[in-house]
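Can anyone check this?
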Amino acid sequence: MQRPYTIIVSEVTVDGKLTLRKGRSSKEIMQYMDDEANRYLHEIRAKVDGIMVGAETIRTDNPFLTVRYVEGKNPTRIVPTSKANIPLDANILEKHAPTIIVTSNSAPQERVEALSKKVEVIKCGDEEVDLVEMMDTLYKKGIKSLMVEGGSTLNWNLLRLGLVDEVRLIHIPFIVGGEDTPTLVGGEGFYSFDDVIKLKLRAHFTRGSHLITEWEIKFES
């Protein structure tokens, strides 16, 4: 299998939260990023071939996923969604940049057809999106580098399958708390330190008033 070089990029609070509460938009926290931090985020967007978010991020945040704070091309926007459950008025379905919806054979045909009238739709997997097959397909479509902007479920599923190469974090100086508040990585989690994903700190610096940390995934040989 071939796959894109994949970087998870996220803004997180000091206690690792992505939002104020489950179901709340991450834009509420992102509004506290200063211009330098936003430029850092958009510099990465301008350098990659594709940008990916989960369907819940589309439904909650309705992002454009375009390059705005710097000069550069818009990456192809990619959303894996097993049931093709994307609002038909979502901003990513507009013509600001190319968009690929990745769904499964179990998606309702009427939703697939409606989305196909607006953007490219590909199927990978039967009941759910097969993320490994998806990555191989994206690579063959010319997506050699991929930026993932969460949320926590998508981050977990990509990480547990060994499909991520780097994690880059923009630290927001807040503590939010909350047992059910989404963190950087959700999902089932690991139960043994033999299984946890190990990282190596590659760089740490400030952009504007924000700490940035960049981590490499340490793949076991």
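Reply from J.R.: I decoded it. The domain at 5-217 is CATH 3.40.430.10 (Dihydrofolate Reductase, subunit A).
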